[in-house]
Amino acid sequence: ADYTPFSKLNNLCMVIEAKEGIDSYAYEAAARMAGLKIAAHLGKLGENLTPDNIEVFETKPLLEQASEYPELPKVAYVYMLQTQGLLHDTYVYGVDAKKIVPTILYPTEVMDGAILSGNCVSACDKNTSYHHLNNPIIKNLYKQHGKEINFMGIIITNENVYLADKERSSDWTAKFTKYLGLDGVVISQEGFGNPDTDLIMNCKKVEAQGIKTVIVTDEYAGRDGSSQSLADADVAANAVITGGNANEMIILPPMEKIIGMLDYTDTVAGGFDGALRPDGSIEAELQIITGATNELGFNKLSAKMY
């Protein structure tokens, strides 16, 4: 339970069974929209309730924000969004993020629901909509705002599969960091493997502008932790925060009650033939658990260099 933040929440779980012969894309869209409708209904139920506490966050228009704390380093957040197709998509104001070019958002727009998740494969490092709404990188940058940094805002970018798309998006991202006159950037990845290239491209090109970067990722270092952690690397990536090794093996004890189904345990990312044991326990890689190595830092795993 400690591997995922969702074990500490009250969760409403949908169990959806697809009609025989339904197209995978239609199945995904129906499940996603069903979840949104339920979330909207629950949100309306709490619309007029008095909150237990209120926090205030504000980022001002660009020139006004830049001049508010002229003595502090100007820092922005490069927010990489998973955009690789079925079960690997993200939506920005309802638009499939595969079809966007990098752009600038107020951090408060993310808190208001501007970014919506449509992905789940290799669940350990995919951002659910809950992660986006409660992004700890944004909250922590706000905590330092006006004290150690001048938090200038967010640059969102995608992680498309083709090289030309990666080059275009990383070029735009680096251009924005220069345009905003930044001194430093935090870059968070979503996913692994193919997006490692996007991460390193963003890092290299931003650093080439003379802007310091910190990247936030996770690792696929093999079950014994001895393999190369990322599929790409560069000397410019010299400040790295990790959410843990997704290949680490774990054993989940049998449960008295299961909500949903176990049909896919052996084939879901992180599982393997025999992962579901006869006694009902599951032996699998950590990547099978939603949010376990989350690359926004919304988890309990990391690593330190000694």
UniProtKB/TrEMBL annotation:
Top-level taxon in the UniProt lineage: Eukaryota
GO-annotated molecular function: oxidoreductase activity, acting on X-H and Y-H to form an X-Y bond, with a disulfide as acceptor
Name this protein carries in UniProt: Beta-aspartyl-peptidase
